Structure formats: structure tokens, C-alpha cells
Amino acid sequence: SPQQHNVTSYGATTVAIITLGAFPGMWINAFIVSVLCITWVKKKTLNSIEKILLLLGCSRFWYLCFSWIYFFLSKIYPYCLMVHPILQLLQGAYNFFYSSNFWFSACLCVFYCIKIANFRNSFFIYLKVKIDRMVPWLLLGSAIFSLIIGTLVYNIIDKAICRNFNFTCQGRLWKATIRIEEHFYSIHFLTGFVYTTSFMAVIFSAVFLLYSLWRHKSNMQTNSMKNLSMDAHTRAMKSLLSFFIMYSINFISFILTLIYSMKYQNYVMLLVYLIQQAFPGVHSLILIFSNPKLEKALLKTLSCVKCKVCMR
């Protein structure tokens, strides 16, 4: 029927857009993880920024993987999601890596702020001295909170499915359509909490670093040490500004999701899907070019690929 054809066409378009946004992001984050793992093997250790970037790259890679798998199954093979507990596991894993992505990003912003900003406050000086020791605990706390979020989402969906599906022993399939309305707001409340807390960390870090930069610029004299400090402030501000812009765009897509996700076959959601899938890849590319080691490795890799292509 024409209606069924429209649904199939919409599903194929959605999968194509998700693939277009997700696969480049997977490659970019896999590159970050591989470079940092090689560095870890060679040096036997990683500095604080490298630890954060490693976990951030891992979380974004797996976030994109589970996101793509979920959308592919939901649009092309929806009956696969009716097999218990595939839907619960996919949504739980998706939200775990979604949350860890945002909180690891927030950890990176906080680290930049504390490490580079200059304040005479005794508590801030204490944090500056201890921040490298605190980073592993911040990352562990972020992972634990993300695991809690993923577990809560798993339980919410599992309860919703148990209420709205009839299980048959013969087919071993759940024989109804999920009533998303019953768990939609609970899941998006958790998503909003994750987004809000991490975004507030980004905003406060940017404000403190900007204030420190303004103070440093007003007191700066022309000597090399202060110029180096100025450069460090500027680089950190560029990174935090990229975080702020990406978070703002993601916030808009989150609001659009709340408005349009109940309206099936709405093409506004295609734009939202593209934004959500492109965000981890685009921002990770910005992080590569703001890190000299990663930028050098990327340019070296691209030059090797170019040489091999030219030889053919």
C-alpha cells in the first residue's frame, strides 16, 4: 500500500542519514583511541588529558555503534526489537555511552579550567595542585553515574514492555507495539539531567577561564612567560568554546526530540538524528586539531593514505 511504501521509504532515509553521520564519527574516535593506546604502550603511562580523551573517544565510538544498531533495527527489522531483551539492552547501552560521552566531556572542560586558569583563591590553588590525582576519580565517578543511568533506562523500558506486551511461549516474541508514552518522559528526564549537569560544568568552566583570561590580559606585560600563559589561555578557550557551541546545538536537537519524537515520519527528526550522530565525530575532529600529538598523527596517516592512492 502507499502508506506502507512511505513508512519503508522514511525508514530507509533515516538509516541512510544515521549512517552518514555515524560512520565518519566512528572512524575519527577509533583513530583517537588507537593513537592514545599506542602512546600508552610506548610510554607505559598517559597524562591526564590523554586519559580523558581515551575514555571520551571510547564512549563516543560505542555510543555511535549502539545508536546505529538501534536505528537500523528499528527502521529496517523492527521485529528484532520484540525479542526479549534486545530492546532493553540496546537502550541501556545507548544511554550508558550517551551519558558517559557528556560527563567525560565535562571532565575535560573542568580539567582545562583548573589547570590553566589563574586565581589566588586557596581552594582553587589546592585543586590545581591535586587535579591530576583527581582525574581518575572524576572519570570513575562519571562511569558509575553513567552506569546508573543506563541501568535505570533498562528497568524503565523493561517494566513498560512487561505492561504492554503479551509473551507467547510458542513464538518467543513480544506481540504488541510499545506504548512509548508510558516511559518517554522518564527516559527524557534522565537524558535532560545528564545534559544539564554536564552543560553547567562546561558553562562554569568557560566563564571562569574567560575571567582568568581577561585578568591575565589586563595585567600582562611583554615577557615570554606571560605570552606562553596567554597562548595556553587562548587555546583552552577555543576548546571550551567548541564544547559550548556543540552542547548548544545538541540542546536544540534535544528540545526538538521532545517536541517531534511522538510524531512518526516527521522529517524534522531526520535533521535531529543527523545532528546527534554528527556531534561526536565533528567535536572529536576539533579535539584532534587542538591537540598537537593527535593532529600530527592524523596528518601523517592522511599523507600515507594519499601516497598509497597516488601509487595506484
Automatic annotation (TrEMBL):
Keywords: G-protein coupled receptor, Membrane, Receptor, Sensory transduction, Taste, Transducer, Transmembrane, Transmembrane helix. Gene3D superfamilies: Rhodopsin 7-helix transmembrane proteins. CDD domains: 7tm_TAS2R (cd13950). Pfam families: TAS2R. One of its GO terms (cellular component) is membrane. It is a multi-pass membrane protein. The chain crosses the membrane at residues 15-41, 53-73, 93-114, 135-157, 193-214, 240-261, 267-290. This is Taste receptor type 2. It comes from Notiomystis cincta.
